[in-house]
Task: inverse folding
């Protein structure tokens, strides 16, 4: 099938900067795609790379878009190289949305696209790093979140353990808490965090559940994470180690049978992701890359299809941006 193709870069500033072991993130850059088939049906896609997480850079994605003709085909879309995983996701998502033959009012398409049909999914709310988490969780709780992710590996471990002690005594008993180190711990620090979490599990006075420790070590220390996963009761989830489909397959082949955190926006081809997850029946947690509602819609559809263990998905990030409606309207008008 042939499509008319247009694209536009975007920039969105975080309401508050996101602090992780990778540093401070203040502006989200990406690309919105629009393809139109011969019957006038529009498909929207989004390229939202995170180069320091394992995807292509924004400039590489822009270069790819710029060299494409104004009319593209399915063959072009499905031959995007693996070195451009965010492009694979963006173009395939647009193709899935725009490949139907039925004509629809374009305005209806726009409105329907940003309305998720995945309402049964549970969401995890992202807490800020450091002491700010002690003030932020209650607002998110009032919004309905019962699972939270807290960034660690940002400050000195003694300080973070002290904040953690306060946090677990403050959060309601029914809470699930995820700790995300973004690969920022040493082997000794990872052991200390896991030992602390195991002790918490053994303490009947604190019924709070530590769901998992996410990516405690850098990706090159896979074997150490595999060893740690068998040494403690607290689960470990891989994130940076499985950023792309190639990495996902490699870690599975090397024996990882724990939790995989999948970021659809940068993992690569949605069709190949479906095939992998269905074939291997992995324990997956789907997570945001701070995309707009366009990529989020496609990501949530994948999460609804492929989540197996009723784990909350990591898309509770709306509080990091201003509301999208006005911003989207101007973008659609431009495209």
Result:
């Amino acid at each position: 099938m042939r499509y008319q193709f247009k694209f536009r870069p975007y920039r969105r500033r975080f309401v508050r900067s996101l602090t992780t072991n990778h540093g401070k993130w203040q502006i989200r850059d990406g690309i919105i795609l629009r393809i139109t088939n011969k019957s006038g049906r529009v498909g929207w896609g989004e390229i939202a790379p995170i180069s320091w997480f394992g995807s292509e850079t924004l400039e590489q994605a822009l270069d790819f878009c710029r060299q494409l003709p104004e009319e593209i085909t399915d063959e072009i879309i499905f031959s995007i190289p693996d070195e451009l995983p965010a492009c694979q996701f963006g173009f395939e998502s647009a193709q899935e949305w725009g490949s139907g033959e039925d004509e629809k009012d374009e305005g209806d398409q726009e409105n329907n696209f940003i309305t998720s049909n995945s309402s049964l999914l549970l969401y995890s709310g992202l807490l800020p790093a450091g002491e700010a988490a002690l003030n932020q969780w209650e607002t998110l709780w009032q919004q309905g979140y019962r699972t939270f992710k807290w960034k660690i590996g940002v400050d000195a471990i003694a300080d973070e353990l002290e904040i953690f002690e306060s946090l677990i005594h403050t959060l309601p008993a029914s809470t699930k808490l995820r700790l995300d180190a973004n690969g920022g711990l040493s082997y000794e620090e990872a052991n200390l965090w896991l030992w602390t979490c195991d002790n918490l599990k053994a303490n009947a006075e604190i019924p709070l559940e530590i769901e998992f420790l996410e990516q405690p070590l850098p990706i090159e220390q896979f074997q150490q994470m595999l060893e740690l996963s068998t040494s403690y009761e607290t689960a470990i989830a891989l994130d940076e180690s499985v950023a792309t489909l190639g990495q996902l397959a490699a870690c599975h082949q090397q024996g990882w049978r724990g939790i995989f955190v999948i970021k659809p926006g940068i993992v690569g081809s949605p069709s190949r992701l479906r095939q992998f997850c269905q074939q291997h029946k992995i324990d997956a947690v789907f997570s945001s890359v701070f995309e707009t509602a366009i990529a989020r819609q496609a990501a949530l559809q994948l999460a609804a299809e492929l989540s197996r263990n009723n784990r909350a998905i990591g898309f509770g990030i709306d509080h990091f941006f201003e509301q999208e409606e006005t911003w989207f309207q101007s973008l659609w008008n431009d495209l």
Notes: The CA atoms of residues 138 and 333 lie 38 Å apart. The two ends are 21 Å apart (CA to CA).
